[in-house]
Every structure is written in C-alpha cells, then in structure tokens.
Amino acid sequence: MFMTFRRIRKCQCMQLVTTCLVLSVVMVCWEQMDSSFVSHVKSYSHRYLINRFVVINKSLTIPREQARRFSNFRYLMDHPDKCVGEDILLLLFVKSSPENTERRNAIRSTWGNETYIQNTLGATVKVVFALGAPQTKKEEPSWSKRSGVGFQNQLFHENRLYGDLIQQDFLDSFHNLTLKLILQFHWMHSRCAHARFFMTADDDIFIHMPNLVKHLQDVSSRGVMDFWIGRVHRGAPPIRNNDSKYYVPFEMYPWVVYPDYTAGAGYVVSRDVADKIYQATLTLNASLYIDDVFMGICAHAIGVSPQEHLFFAGEGKAPYHPCIYDQMMTSHGHVEDIYDLWKAAIHPEVKERITWLTGRLYCTAVKLSLLCKPYYLDTYPCKAAFS
User: Does one domain contain both 124 and 265?
Assistant: First the structure.
C-alpha cells in the first residue's frame, strides 16, 4: 500500500512538472503563435466569413477626379529615358529621405550598383530613388545653411552626378509614404512599363542581389503572373494607440483587420501586378498613410494575394552567417554595416562551402540555432532552416 501511494505521488509530480513545462513553452511561444496562427484565422475569417474586405474596397473607392490629388504632383527631378531601349529584368525603387545622402551612396557602391549587376550577374536592373520635397529650411542640415546653398540644390547636384533621383513636390515625411508609393507605380507605368518585375525597398535595407536576380530570372523563364513576394502580414490589426508611429485613427480606417500585405521594407511584384496596382490607385482613397497596408488594399481590389518568401525579412535584421547568406534575399536595418555585409555575403566561398552534403547538413544545424528561437523575431521564420 505504501509503495502504491508513493508511485501515485511520483506520477502526480511528473504530471505537474510536465504541465508546467508545457505551459512555459506555450507562454514563451505565444507571441509567435499569435503572429502566425491567430493572424491567419483573423485573415481567413474576414475574407471568407465576414467578407469585410469587399466592403473596404467599396468604401475607399472614389471618383478619379478626387483620386488624382494623390498623384498629380509636379516632378522636381525625373529621368523619363531611364528605361528606353533596354530589356529590363527589374525596376528597383528605393524609398529615401532627401537627407539620406550617405545611404544612397552606400547602395550605389554595393547591392545597387547597376554596372556590377550587368557585368557580373548578366541582368539589367534599374535602381532609382523616390523622394519628396525636403523639409522646411529650419530643418535643413547645418552644413547646408552655412554654405548658403539650399538643400534642394544639393539634391540637384547629386542627381547630376548619378542620374537616379525621382522626386515630386509633396513634402517628404512619414505621413506621405503612400504618396511616395503611388509615385513609384505611376512612374513605372509611364516610364518603365516593360520591366519584367518591380521592387520597392527602404534605404536601410540590404538586398542580396545575386540571389534575387537568379530567383527572378528563374521565375521569369516560367512566365508566372500575379506574382507578389515578400514578408507577408496576415490578419494584422490597425494600431489604435496614438503614441505609436503607426497609429491609425478609427475615422481613417474603421475596420478591425487589414487585408494581407507585405512588409514595406522590401517586396517584389511582376509587371502585370504593377500595372493593375497602378490602375487601382486611380480610384482608391490614398489618405491611409501606412503605405504597405495601402498596397494590400490595392492588391485585394485587383484580386492579387501576397506570397510568403522565407528569406525576405520584415523589420528585423538577419543573422550574420554564411549559411544565411546562401539564401538571403533581404535584411532590414543596415546602414553603417552595409559595406562589410556586402563583401561577406557575395564572397564566392559562401556557395562553395554549402555545395557538399556535409556543408548543407552543417548549415541546417546553424540555421536551426539562429532562426528557431523560442520568441518572435521579425526576420526569417524557423521553417527557413529546412529550405
């Protein structure tokens, strides 16, 4: 009897320990579960059960004359002949603020170097920067004031050197990012409509251009349509906290969930999708200043859904490791380190080490340790370790 009682107590203790362990894992992983499973449930319920996204499209549809105020801005700098007479694989627009001269120079010297892409990768990629008008003079850099030369003139000089700035005369600010997105699609429609793919990216992003070019060449050879890849957000709710940078008031967007969209840090669409998005911007109210969400609204209006690509980062910075570089497409949050990362990521040894079976097994183990964390990181998901 005594031995039986001890066995029962031991069994109960084991059950208690197991329960605590399971609860601990659930609590630690809840944020990741909420961002994937719960968000998918929200997304699908709104799409198939509640069907509110149809209501959103109807509510945001406005006459073309009213929609024109979101795109009818004068060009301060333009390059209408940028794409003429060339077979262009990718038109890549970088969203940049006027003051971010060093970031633009870093991109021109690394992943955005058109000459390198053409000579080394055998593809024609056009890289241009989308800008609005600079802030007021009191906010100009001190060196610009001392020189007595307006900041806009500095941009004109930069454009004469590199020929890659596309600027309209709306104020360059966070709340005008949707205007900058519309600028990009309208510019492609009128200046570079024959490019096979369009990409928009932030100016603090790193793009592994060899990997991206190879992927797009493979996709292009298959003739795919309705192509839209990036880091997908499903079932994301509007942020109602007015202390947040991403605060959206109820009056601007009264619904509880956004349509599916890709993180604005960087995503790619095919030519046919770019043209359809352009058409959608002609009749949609673009007052919503979260540009990647507005992209999702436009895409839903034309019947296109985003596709998750495991190696497109969201807001997070990818781990530094050759096993990551082998499949990396984008990584976010790179400014000072962009030169070192570019040298490391495109080094020939990266591919050589991973070619053999032992190298692939090693990299799988490394990616498991780097990506499969018990908490959410807005970079590559755990399943990327097995790809």
Answer: yes
User: Is the domain of 261 the same as that of 369?
Assistant: no
Domain membership flag for residue 316: no
Place of tokens 């790193």: 206
The verdict on residue 55 lying in a domain is no
106 with 38, same domain: the answer is: no
Q: Which domain holds residue 29?
A: 2-44
27 and 74 part of one domain: no
Q: How many domains, in total, are found in the chain?
A: 3
User: Whole-angstrom Cα distance, residue 244 to residue 157?
Assistant: 36
Query: Would residue 93 count as lying in a domain?
Result: yes
Tell me: do 37 and 134 sit in the same domain.
no
Which pLDDT tens digit goes with each residue over 230-265? 999 998 899 999 999 999 999 999 998 999 999 999
Q: For residue range 53-99, list pLDDT tens digits in order.
A: 677 888 899 999 999 999 999 999 999 999 999 999 999 999 999 99
Q: Say whether pTM exceeds 0.90.
A: no
Burial group, residue 192, by CB count within 10 angstroms (0-12, 13-18, 19+) = buried
Tell me the one-letter amino acid at 153.
Answer: N
Residues 37 and 83 occupy one common structural domain: no
Q: What Å distances lie between residue 368 and 18, 68, 335, 365, CA to CA? A: 24, 49, 27, 5
In a domain, 52, yes or no: no
Are 218 and 334 in the same domain?
no
Q: Are residues 150 and 299 in the same domain?
A: yes
